[in-house]
């Protein structure tokens, strides 16, 4: 299900990922997949925003560094997850989709962390499929 789609007027691609993979692969890879996934979705949202003339993030590397090693002191990781969720909501707004529920994201983040990533990925998959296959 990991189909790559090319952004219009850009050399960048976005990926439609399996939400189950996003939820479960971090357990198998001892968290490495989560770091790679977080970097890539932030990079994809940045490229998507730039292709439409909007700011959806400036440096995906900073988002990654906020998770690790910044997560060791907790606050940077919480901030990057909050801002990343806002970016997903902004991505959905650019695609004229109803944004994900922030309260549900918060609940998933603290109660069922694998569901947090899967929920964000499902939202991004809908945007990528709608915007990029529909054109």
3D architecture notes:
The model has no long low-confidence stretch (mean pLDDT 92). The protein has one domain (20-129). The radius of gyration is 14 Å and the shape is globular. The protein contains six helices and two strands, in the order E-E-H-H-H-H-H-H. The chain has helices at 19-28, 32-52, 60-67, 75-94, 102-111, 113-133, and strands at residues 3-6, 13-16. 67% of the residues lie in helices and 6% in strands. A hairpin with a 6-residue loop joins strand 1 (3-6) and strand 2. The chain has a two-stranded antiparallel ribbon. It starts with a strand and ends with a helix. It has 135 residues and is mainly α. Helix 1 (19-28) packs across helix 6 and helix 5 (102-111) crosses helix 6 (113-133).
């Amino acid at each position: 299900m990991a189909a790559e789609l090319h952004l219009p007027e850009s050399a960048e691609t976005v990926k439609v990922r399996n939400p189950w993979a996003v939820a479960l692969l971090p357990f198998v890879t001892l968290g490495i997949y989560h770091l790679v996934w977080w970097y890539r979705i932030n990079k994809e949202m940045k490229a998507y925003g730039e292709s439409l003339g909007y700011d959806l993030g400036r440096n995906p590397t900073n988002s990654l560094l906020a998770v690790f090693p910044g997560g060791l002191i907790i606050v940077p990781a919480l901030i990057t997850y909050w801002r990343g969720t806002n970016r997903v909501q902004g991505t959905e707004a650019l695609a004229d989709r109803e944004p994900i529920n922030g309260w549900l994201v918060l609940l998933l983040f603290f109660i069922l962390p694998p569901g947090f990533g899967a929920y964000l990925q499902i939202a991004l998959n809908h945007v990528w499929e709608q915007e990029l296959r529909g054109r």
